[in-house]
Design brief:
single chain; alpha/beta; Rossmann fold; five-stranded parallel beta sheet; two-stranded antiparallel ribbon; 31% helix
Length: 183
């Protein structure tokens, strides 16, 4: 009797972004059933597990904009043998990084103090429960080592599928023209 083939453990998480990469991942539609035959999901929107255990492959979307993102990213990296930066926010900071050209104090003043329609006496929140904002939004490779980058906003489902199936099969992912997007 042969031992069952060990499934790869896969986890996902999201930092500063819109969750669009996870939605694109879920857009592999019925192929997700085939994927479940090949992998075991740890932390992901499929399992709703909040903490990541040791995994073979981690997919992470979003940039790094606060101290909590730094903590989550470092802990996730420790748990994942292979880490993939998924989407523009993870690869280069994406849309959240557009705040980088502005002064953070000015942004907070406008959002919490001077914006029309705010209650009289509104102040910038100062609560220890809120994560400390970083001065700039960073791509994740500036904080931890990344093994693969899958660009796009978001990467298309077909690219994610090809990427994952190549990795699962032990091949270096190669995405040809039409699958890679830098938007």
């Amino acid at each position: 009797m042969t031992a069952p083939i060990r499934k790869l453990r896969v986890a996902t998480t999201s930092l500063a972004g819109c969750f669009g990469c996870h939605m694109s991942f879920l857009d592999i539609d019925e192929r997700i059933l085939k994927l479940v035959e090949l992998v075991e999901f740890d932390r992901s929107p499929i399992t709703d597990i909040k903490q990541c255990g040791p995994c073979d492959l981690g997919l992470i979307e979003g940039g790094v904009c606060n101290a909590e993102n730094v903590h989550v990213l470092r802990e996730f990296r420790k748990q994942c043998k292979i880490l993939v930066a998924l989407g523009a926010c993870a690869v280069n900071g994406g849309l959240p990084a557009q705040r980088n050209r502005l002064d953070l104090r000015d942004i907070l003043e406008e959002v919490y103090v001077t914006e029309d329609g705010l209650a009289r006496g509104s102040k910038i929140p100062n609560d220890p429960e809120l994560p400390l904002l970083l001065d700039k939004v960073r791509p994740i490779h500036e904080v931890v080592r990344i093994d693969y980058f899958l660009p796009g906003c978001p990467p298309p489902a077909d690219a994610i599928w090809k990427f994952l199936t190549d990795l699962i099969a032990g091949r270096t992912p190669v995405l040809g023209h039409g699958l890679l997007h830098y938007d």
